UniProtKB/TrEMBL annotation, chain A:
Renumbered residue ranges of the record's region Disordered: 1-20, 161-208
Organism this protein belongs to: Durio zibethinus (Durian)
Name the UniProt record assigns to this protein: Extra-large guanine nucleotide-binding protein 1-like isoform X2
Subcellular location, principal: nucleus
Binding, GTP: 802-805
UniProt cross-references to CDD domains, sorted A to Z: G-alpha (cd00066)
UniProt lineage: Eukaryota, Viridiplantae, Streptophyta, Embryophyta, Tracheophyta
GO cellular component, one term: nucleus
Automatic annotation (TrEMBL), chain B:
Keyword Repeat applies: yes
Recorded GO CC terms: plasma membrane
Family per similarity comment: Belongs to the WD repeat G protein beta family.
Gene: LOC111308869
GO terms, biological process: signal transduction
Keywords associated with the record: Coiled coil, Repeat, Transducer, WD repeat
Residues forming coiled coils: 3-30
Claim: Repeat is one of the keywords in the record: yes
One Pfam family this sequence matches: WD40_Gbeta
Name of this chain's protein: Guanine nucleotide-binding protein subunit beta-2
Ranges occupied by WD repeats: 61-102, 152-194, 200-242, 244-285, 337-377
Amino acid sequence: MPPEEAVTFPSLENEDEEEQPYSFAVEYTGPPVPYDLPRAVPINVEKIPVATVVSKVPLSNTELHIPVVPPILAPDRNKLSKELLLQPTVSPTSVIAFEERVSEDTNNCLLSGELSSYESGELAELINNNDNSSRRLGACSVSNEHSSMLDYCDSFGKSRESSSRARVSNDDDLNQPDWGSNESVLSLDYPSSRVSSRKTGDCNNESNADIKRPQVVTFRDIESDDGLDEEFGQDEVQPQVARVKREPQTKGKKGSCYRCFKGNRFTEKEVCIVCDAKYCSNCVLGAMGSMPEGRKCVTCIGFPIDEAKRGSLGKCSRMLKRLFIDLEVRQIMKAEKLCEANQLPPEYICVNGQPLCHEELAILQSCPIPPKKLKPGNYWYDKVSGLWGKEGQKPSMIISPHLNVGGSIRPDASSGNTQIFINGREITKVELRMLQLAGVQVAGNPHFWVNEDGSYQEEGQKNMKGYIWGKAGMKLVCAVLSLPVPSKSSNPGGELLNSMSGRSVPDYLEQRILQKILLVGSTGSGSSTIFKQAKILYKDVPFSEDERENIKLTIQSNVYGYLGILLEGRERFEEESLAEMRKRACSKDTDPEGSIDDGDGKTIYSIGLRLKEFSDWLLKTMVSGHLETIFLAATREYAPLIEELWKDAAIQATYNRRSELEMLPSVASYYLERAVEILKMDYEPSDLDILYAEGVTSSNGLACVDFSFPQSLCDENIGTADQHDSLLRYQLIRVQARGLGENCKWLEMFEDIGMVIFCVALSDYDQFSADGTNKMLLSRKFFESIVTHPTFDQMDFLLILNKFDQFEEKVEQVPLTRCEWFDDFHPLISRHRTNTNSNSINNNPTHGQLAFHYIAVKFKRLYSSLTGRKLYVSLLKGLEPKSVDAALKFAREILKWDEERANFSLSEHSFYSTEASSFSH
Amino acid sequence: MSVPELKERHAAATETVNNLRERLRQRRNELLDTDVAGYARSQGRSPVTFGPTDLVCCRILQGHTGKVYSLDWTPERNRIVSASQDGRLIVWNALTSQKTHAIKLPCAWVMTCAFSPTGQSVACGGLDSMCSIFNLNSLTDRDGNLPVSKTLSGHKGYVSCCQYVPNEDIHIITSSGDQTCVLWDITTGLRTSIFGGEFQSGHTADVLSVSINASDSRTFVSGSCDATARLWDTRAASRAVRTFHGHEGDVNTVKFFPDGNRFGTGSDDGTCRLFDIRTGHQLQVYHQQHGDNEVPHVTSIAFSISGRLLFAGYSNGNCYVWDTLLAKVVLNLGSPQNSHEGRISCLGLSADGSALCTGSWDTNLKIWAFGGNRRVI
């Protein structure tokens, strides 16, 4: 366009091409626009109000009355809201005790003002923004709450009149000088907020005529539950958690469907449990979609529900039943009840002044006598007696004692003024009356110590004085005074704790607390042994009937396999010895007196005809690879033969030379020794048998087991903090290296796991795979590929060096340098050891331990060179349950440490780094 | 013959094979004087044009809480089964976006799912190395879970893909990480034939995908981590009919062209390719140049009903619509406001070709339909 070009700077453009050409605003000459142009309002510096000094208020120590704004009745809601509105907009920095509500109202009101000009999509965004800001306001104001409360106390009276003045000024179309009057009211004001407040004023003015405007102020239902007077009179401290209420967006008339704007208040509608939007049956499916979290608008999915609607959770309406098939309705209702977003947010419940966390809420809800109808709010809880009540009120019930929830009880928890204390809480008058009726001596303001069974004693004294609720008629008295009595089912505290740990966690919590541990290792690294150990260690029923049956079959076919190898060996040995014999015979032949019939094929490796038959059959099936399919028949037919075969001298002779049979795994002798027993039909594998068995878990590519660490004695010594741990559930997932493929395609499925345990068999260092590579080097390669996999970025790794028992023996005979990766292993200690060989109890580490540390350091170096982080290493003897238990507990500690690490700044400090330095060369 | 001697001979043989393969490739390249796009251009064809409303997202299927890994449509057009890492299969009504079944799986690590031709049952497979069949008509147990009606076990690696043989509910073909594909008889639960494996001329790495020829259900192709695709005949399992080289990365997905004479592939090298099964030639490469060196993988592909369009999901969240004739991207479903936020892991076209469903790691599925008056192509 020519006029624009006229005002650009060509020189600038040449000099710097990236720079946008500057242009000056040209006066608008086009046709008049139909809309209002925004205009900057000049600020009069004199008129910017400044903070006024708050006059000192005499403040009584105990009874500080915090004013609470009463809920406003419907008819004059709009009018009053305007009054309310003006106060916070005046000073957003000193928001008051009920700040979150007020600021929210402002936001909502602001919105309503702009509603006419915004599209609904933007509106939703705006709501979100405002939600955030109000939350922030709520949060930041907590810190200076005290002062601002005072501030407010002081000016509360005045604010009313001034706000009414402000209202008058609203009607006068809000000219600026009027705002000066606010100076006296509270405190500062700055231009931006003035603009916004002005808008609210505007909107309020318009809104009188505008029907479409939504309700400006909606109070949270919790407050409105309580009566108006109560709210005003009581100095109840509001929960300090800002809560957000989602507002539905509607343009329709009152009572109509929020989506199609049709219908009236009498048509049947479904209500969103978050924002209270109502939809007619035609629109429900469109507005709520597939209801993954129950009856929520699509936009509300993921938001916490309206607490007032908690009661109706999972209760299906007739309309839904009509719309969906039965199964679907059930699924939706189940989702509504159990999905995480709909659960009671634990931070809304304060016990003894401390908001709960998830675990605490779980404890509270899953205890034998849980509080009835738990609603958000402040509660006090007497952990010794189990008394439970609303903050500032008399006890409402007696729940399970000794639950580790919330803080410690405060003396003024129930706002008693009787000077008599029970378990450190000053009791109320009603309770005192009850004590008097129960015949408890209350003269002299005693401090009582009451147990959950009602037995009480005076503080500092040993002897039990009696039972509060023991007297006949106490139940009646309590009922009259509406005080709780302990229920009969309450157990003594000791049993309670134990039953706690065995208690199942609610369904929705289970998912969240589950910590996943991935267990990987190349074949033969013993990862399946660890997996089986974990099952045996932590499960009540480690293997189901079916599993045992399968395992039995696997073991038996394994044993047949071992036997086959033995028989094969026997044939070889027989041939060898026959050949030798023949050779000897030949040499004897030269001797005239040598007799040939000595060599009729009988050696110590020869077997009888029947056994020979069986042996041939077995070897044939083994070669054809159908051992699994035929061996069932074998068990039936040949079981008696096995005993004969095993006892045969030839087999025994072969067995004695088993070290020459490379095919025979070392574990085979464990089974072969008991072959007769195992191959019987009624054989039941013991846990140890299962542990030793090969191929029990590897038939599947993946196996997982859920478990939680049982509370052992030492855990209890640590204290109650560990009580949560029993709730934590772990899932050990074992994947086979073979299934991982070359580039570990599906490892990305495991991005939600907590840590990876990588398993390496120490004894592999002198083993070679089929193509001649050292198995340790293969493990290293695999380790590298796993560690550097993008899915495991920033993941913790625990390296388990397994089969230490075998390794210790082996390293004495075969030098560690057999593996080229370890060629610089020169233990200094070897000289010493010759002296102290006889007893290794002294401080000198054994050769095996040295080698282990050396390998650990090798891996640590490798790991840190790949990732720059520290590797955790643990030593393991897979066949010893204690060793596996210790390693898995170590893994748990790492996970826990991981969670806590955020709180500590010493993240780069590892306890285990010392090992690395001591073996550096 | 001693072991080193054998090794030597093996090495020599491998080299010969590689030489021959290379010569074959060169010969092919000599013969291949044009590709589809070049020919189409010379014929004066113009690419398909898409307006902003021609393909719009009309449904969002929400309900999974984990990454969606796989989806499949029923032949009678309006139902979808999807598999997700939350350990569930969900059967959706695509028209109303309602869930008709939510099946909790015994093994949460599911990679694939398939609808049977009659729509009576669904199959799924994953890291448990088994293919599980669920009959949708069977009664749920006390917890509201659908029981497994059949497990097909025998694979030694994860089950990466499964597809029912068209027009019969009793046969299914699975591909697995154990380098084989298997044709199963569902009624007996036994393997009918095994394609590839130890002694046969099969894939030399994990098989990731299978696609059965719609016009001749006795042939199917498989794509594998060995960067090849292979064509198989179910009657002759012993060896692959043909091996298709060309890709430089794992072949993640294969899909038969609607006419049954060609098939498309998608790979980790960021390209989609079109192969002809009769000549064994590579007909076309579909490759979009990217400025940065990070090449997005092709995760899943689907052809439109006429074959003119190729939908390809990429690991960076893009979903290109290619004009198969001119090898041009005509639309990117990853760019609109309401597109997926994560990687597009699977996509599928409804049987009548009127709608496309995409599944993503952002846990949602979206249904895209040809909007307005546009003819389905």
